[in-house]
Amino acid sequence: MLKGLLSVMLTAASLAGCTGVEGEHYIGVPESPAWFQSASPATIAAHFRSRCEAYGFKPDGPEMANCIQEEASTVRAAKQAKLHRAPSTPAYQQPPSPTTSQNCMSRQSYPGAPVYTTCF
């Protein structure tokens, strides 16, 4: 019972954090591809504004707007590239090359026993 209540409370707390500066509800964590697609431009700008202020840009200067745009573009491109990058497959999972032929032999000790296959 306590675990269920705790789970509900944690879920409610996490959902409360998914509201942007314009009151919109977005999905994903900040800087994720889902966040970029669902958060308003004002929410995205507010997120990167704090980073640019930490870099020392003045709040209402043209450099601030350039910084926000550059930070958002850089992060969005990096996240998209990571999302579309093909996962590396270990060599043991790669299929044999088409020029390589394999001969396999299967055997079963008795009916109903496991079948063992050996390829060479």
Helical stretch tally: 4
The total count of strands amounts to 2
Mean pLDDT over the full residue set: 76
Q: Quaternary arrangement of the chains shown?
A: single chain
Calculate Rg over CA atoms. Answer: 26 Å
- Structural class, by secondary structure, is mainly alpha
N-to-C series of helices and strands: HHHHEE
Estimate the strand proportion: 5-15%
Low-confidence blocks of residues: 5-16
Helix content: 40-55%
* Largest sheet: spatial strand order: 1-2
Distance between the termini: 57 Å
Major sheet details: 2 strands, antiparallel
CA-based shape: elongated
Question: How is this structure best described in words?
Answer:
- This protein is mainly alpha-helical and about 120 residues long.
- The protein has a domain at about 15-85.
- The chain contains four helices and two strands; from the N terminus they run H-H-H-H-E-E.
- The protein has helices at about 1-15, 35-40, 40-55, 60-85, and strands at about 105-110, 115-120.
- The protein has a two-stranded antiparallel ribbon with strand order 1-2.
- Helix 3 packs across helix 4 (about 60-85).
- The longest helix is centred in the middle third of the chain and has 23 residues, at about 60-85.
- It is elongated, with a radius of gyration of 26 Å.
- The chain starts with a helix and ends with a strand.
- The model is unreliable at about 5-15 (pLDDT under 50).
